[in-house]
Write a structure and sequence with these properties.
It holds the Pfam family OpcA_G6PD_C. The protein is an alpha/beta fold and about 375 residues long. Helix content is about 35%, strand content about 25%. The strands form two sheets. The protein has an eight-stranded mixed beta sheet, with helices on both faces. Strands 10-9-11-12-13-14 form a six-stranded mixed beta sheet, with helices on one face. α5 links the parallel β7 and β8. α2 crosses α9 and α8 crosses α10.
Length: about 375
């Protein structure tokens, strides 16, 4: 059921929520948290709401969507209440803010927060440079961003690293859960040897690839190289080097990966690229600070991003080429020097005078 409340106030929205709850029998005490979605009003707003509805089936919550509209319009609040089949296992309140109200999202959210329930803020697309200092971010105990959805994903990840605060997390980090689980399980199998180096290959604008490389650098404390590629999507390959051979996890198609280890048969593992709803549901399972994510952000500076993939190729080409012969160039240099110093006839026949001298000596 969808109820539209054009040109309304937060007080009227709250009153309507109580009426709907009394008529439909929905129990507010069944909501475990309040999820606040902050975005600009547009076509992508519905995608974020759909993801929140799916995640709410695991975490029943009240979803408040702050959709900021045109700032040049007159100040106005248009609200929409969704319950039942249109809201998953939650109740959705969409607040479309126009004019001066577009920058007052926190003031409109506070009257609609569930009492004594934690608040999680989610920026599905562009996010503030420091979410902890954002007015809505200050209300939340957990702040979720998505660097991959930013216009410049790698730059956005650098901003997250610089402005990290306890409670921050990123869906680019959540997408690594399956990769981290498979790699950790692979190292639990014999031979139990120390990793000496690692290489992570992925798209150039994939923040998840950078985070995976930083995670390996943080946990294994070995040199890690991050290589860019254009032949795959997201993370493509992880190679861990050790004495007995390499452990390689390769995912060329973005769906199924192949784990290769010395002395063991190759195994295929499910590494499907995760949907937003799955990543969001995972992040809503914990409301405490993520220390592993924090240490991973700090290790981003330890990753070698130099394009070292071209160096082995250059060395191989150098080995395949035959060694240069120094004698011919030296002879040519002598001929040129003789031509510049002597007459033209001597330059044309530089060897004739020595041969005549040799004949005279032989005759005598």
């Amino acid at each position: 059921m969808i109820i539209d409340l054009p040109s309304t106030t937060t007080s009227q929205v709250n009153t309507k929520l109580v009426q709907v709850r009394e008529q439909g029998g929905a129990n507010t005490l069944g909501r475990v948290l309040t999820l606040v979605i902050v975005t600009d009003d547009g076509e992508r707003t519905e995608d974020a709401i759909d993801a929140a509805n799916e995640a709410s089936r695991e975490h029943p919550c009240r979803v408040i969507v702050v959709a900021r509209g045109a700032r040049k319009a007159a100040a106005r609040l248009d609200a929409q209440i969704r319950v039942g089949g249109d809201a998953g296992a939650s109740e959705v309140v969409v607040l479309r803010l126009y004019g001066a109200l577009a920058d007052e999202g926190a003031s409109c959210v506070i009257p609609l927060l569930l009492p004594d329930a934690p608040v999680v803020a989610w920026w599905p697309f562009e996010a503030p440079a420091k979410p902890a200092d954002d007015p809505i971010g200050k209300l939340a105990t957990r702040r979720i961003t998505d660097s991959a959805a930013d216009r410049n994903p790698i730059k956005a990840l650098e901003v997250r690293q610089k402005n990290y605060a306890e409670g921050d997390t990123d869906l680019a980090w959540t997408r690594l859960t399956l990769w981290r689980a498979v790699l950790a399980a692979a190292l639990d199998l014999p031979p139990y040897e120390k990793i000496s180096a690692a290489t992570v290959t992925g798209e150039g604008d994939s923040p998840s690839t950078d985070l995976l490389a930083a995670w390996l650098a943080s946990r294994l404390r070995v040199p890690v190289r991050r290589v860019k590629t254009t032949t795959g999507q997201g993370i493509c390959t992880v190679v861990l080097e050790r004495k007995s051979g390499v452990v390689e996890l390769d995912r060329p198609d973005g769906k199924v990966g192949t784990l290769t280890q010395p002395g063991q048969p190759s195994r295929r593992v499910a590494l499907q690229r995760r949907e937003i709803r799955d990543c969001l549901a995972e992040e809503l399972r914990r409301l405490d600070p993520d220390e592993i994510y924090e240490s991973t952000l700090k290790s981003l500076t330890k990753v070698d991003r130099a394009r070292a993939a071209a160096k082995p190729k250059a060395r191989a080409e150098a080995k395949s080429e035959p060694p240069a012969e120094p004698k011919p160039p030296a002879k040519r240099a002598k001929a040129v020097a003789a031509a510049r110093s002597g007459p033209a006839e001597k330059a044309a026949h530089p060897a004739s005078p020595p041969r005549k001298t040799a004949k005279k000596k032989a005759a005598s």
